[in-house]
Structure formats: structure tokens, C-alpha cells
Amino acid sequence: MRARTPSSPWILLGPSLVLLVVFVVFPVGLAVYESFFQWDLLTDPIYVQIDNYRALAERRELLHLVWRTLSFSVMVVAGAMSLGLGLAVLLNRRGRLFAFARAAIFSAYVVSWVSVALLFTWLLDADHGVFAAMLKFVHLPRVGFLTDPNTALATLAGVTVWKITGYALVVFLAGLQSVPPSLLEAAALDGAGRWSRFRFVVWPLLRPTAAFVATTSLVISFQTFDVVRIMTQGGPANATSLFVYAIYEQVFLDLSIGKASAITVIFFVVLVAVASLQFRFWSASASARARGERRT
């Protein structure tokens, strides 16, 4: 298909480019500009060069923030993908019982983040929560799910996985049901067992679906704010302070617009780096698969 005039592609791309500039390029540019100032919203901004970045780096606050956010994202993406795929394989069957199970699991995804955070704050209370009662019943030691710095981040990741597993389940189910039954029948006639059929027939066809689930789960993990704000407020000892919550703290609690802008710029760089790595990984996997298919 050839464009009628040289300007036709730009006319078609124009609306998207305008939205990209308004909602991405301009905000990022403004954050870069304000990151070189010290401003508390009450007095005039003071130009401080790179002092905001230097302050973040000197106290290793930035390094800890990046590490916590990446660790949280790895736990959320791995948990959502493995649980979503496992449940999709288990529940990809006809029958009212399986339909009810699929609907029950997906229902968690449509519940608001605030409701989920309030529910788990009560369930995970170290003294009066349901999990505390269960541990006490089986004579296990008390665990501070939300008050121990060693467990708080993993606890929030578990709550996030519980919330979005229904979404991963539905997407993987759509991918499983798009696999041609004739391929599975042919593999079965060739003597392939269940595991072999999944590994060599189903999984290669599910790779694009898995890439989509991984990408969207990664985006959700980087956007996490409500559960942190309601369940831990970034504590204990900043153990659950992620990028978005750290920006909120600097703006609304510390009134430090320059430092919040510096964190925003670094957050954007980390997002671009992670997205690039993820894109290269899935592109390399697709290329390797294509080379393997050509050889056969």
C-alpha cells in the first residue's frame, strides 16, 4: 500500500504524535527542567544545578529505591505469570464448576485497589488478623507481615499478585483456546505426552501472549501506589517505598518539587531501560524460534 501524497503518513500519525508530545514529551521535559531547582511551592525556585541528583546519590537513597522497585516488579511479574498460566491450564475445561472458578478468580481484578488494600490490612494484622490466628492455631511464631522490614515488600508483592492473577488467567485462557486442536491431536498421535505437548506445541504458540502479560504486569508493578499508601505508608524503615510513592512523599509531604522531579526523571530512565531489555529479550526469543522453524 503506497501513500497518495508525501504528507499522508504525517496526517495519519498527527493525532498520535500530538498526544505523545502533550502527555509524554512535555511532562518529562518539564520534570527535567524542574529537577535543577529547589522549590517548595511557597517561595521562588532556586537554581541548584545537579544538587537534587547528588543528594539522592550520596545517601544511597536512589540505589535502594531502584533496587526495591525492581525487586518488587520481579516478584509481581513472576508471580502473576506463573500463577495465571498454571490456573489457565488447570481451568481450561468445560463445565459450570470450572466457569465458576474462573469467574471467582477474575473477580479480584475488578475490585478497587483501595478495597483490596483495606481487606489485606485487616487480614494481615500481626495481632488480630486471620493469618495471625492461623499461625497461632498451628503453633508457629508471630510474623509481622506489614511491620517487619524483611517481609513487608514481599507481602505487598503477594497482595498485588493476588489482585492481578485473574487478569493474567483470562489472557492466558484466550491464548490456550486459540491453539488449533489439530496440532495437539497430531502430537498425541506421534506419542507426545501432556508435558511434551505443552512444551513443544502450546508454549511456542503462547509466547506472544506471555510477552503481553509480562509487559502489562510490569507496567502495573511500576504504577503501584494505593497498596503502599494504605498498607505501609512506605514503611517500615522505608522497606516498601517504591518510585511512585517516593515521588508522592517528596511532593505532598516534604514539599520538595526539585527532588521529586529528579526521582521522576530517574524513574523514566529506569522504565526505558527495563522496557528496552524486555523488548530485546522477546525479539531474540522470536528470532531464535524462527531460525529453528526454518531449519526444520
Report on this model:
It is built from twelve helices and two strands. The protein is flat, with a radius of gyration of 24 Å. It has helices spanning 8-34, 51-58, 61-91, 96-110, 113-123, 130-137, 152-177, 181-189, 194-222, 226-231, 243-253, 257-295, and strands at residues 37-38, 46-47. Helix content is 74%, strand content 1%. The chain is an all-alpha fold and 296 residues long. A hairpin with a 7-residue loop joins strand 1 (37-38) and strand 2.
In short:
With 296 residues, the chain is an all-alpha fold. The protein has helices at 8-34, 51-58, 61-91, 96-110, 113-123, 130-137, 152-177, 181-189, 194-222, 226-231, 243-253, 257-295, and strands at residues 37-38, 46-47.
How would the blueprint of this fold be written?
Elements: H1 8-34, E1 37-38, E2 46-47, H2 51-58, H3 61-91, H4 96-110, H5 113-123, H6 130-137, H7 152-177, H8 181-189, H9 194-222, H10 226-231, H11 243-253, H12 257-295
Helix pairs in contact: 1-12, 3-7, 3-9, 4-7, 7-9, 8-9, 9-12, 11-12
List its salient traits:
mainly alpha, 296 residues, 74% helix
